[in-house]
Amino acid sequence: MEVHVVTADNQGLYGAELDRFFVERHRIYVEELHWRDPSPDGREIDQFDTNEAVYLIGIENGRVITGSRFLPTSRPHLLSEVFPHLCDKMICDPMVAEWTRGFIVEDRRERAGVKLKAAFCAAVMDYCLEEGITRIGGIQEVGWLALWERFGWNVEITGRRELFGKKWWVPAYFDVSEGAAAGARRYARLNHSILVKRGSIRRFGPECDRDEYWAAAATQLTPAAA
Questions:
Q1: Of 60, 69, 109, 183, whose CB count within 10 A is highest?
Q2: Has residue 219 been placed in a domain?
Q3: Residue 21's domain spans which residues?
Q4: pTM above threshold 0.85
Q5: Residue of 142, 63, 147 lying closest to 107 (CA atoms)
Q6: pLDDT tens sequence across 61-92
């Protein structure tokens, strides 16, 4: 499997793959989980699939088998707009990414086991490290938290859990680090990155938000004048 980074800049290279990504999301988040009403075209696309969204899409032998969406928490996102009632604190930071709409196609879930999940999670960490993202998270399925802890990830639950359909969900975030990437690679039995970047790819998040973030960080690190 390779995990491809798809943004508004290079999505022309991934027309078929991005379309399949939205079809698989519909199968899971509409038909299986019943989070939304069915779409006439069989594709699950919501108000957060904007030009700022980044998609990581796992492709094996030309087939989309897994994927996720990333958004900057400094702009409106799923947790801030749809699930704020679950949050004890709301994250709003251009270098913290909301990680949602994850899936594994149905016929690969049981057979894939931990190895496929770990491989994708390693690619997620690789992407975040390259982009300078410090944390990732959002509304997460509770069942995944134990797996991430097995990878050695630092998991922080930031709100209350709630039952949607047959599964429990909770706001949670994870630190991005080399150690977290290494932990996922160990379970995936990988000794190299499977992240793929093709064409022109914009940096994560709005440029103005990133500039403000790094300017503030620089101010904090600069000793005050005597």
A1: 69
A2: no
A3: 2-214
A4: yes
A5: 63
A6: 999 999 999 999 999 999 999 999 999 989 99
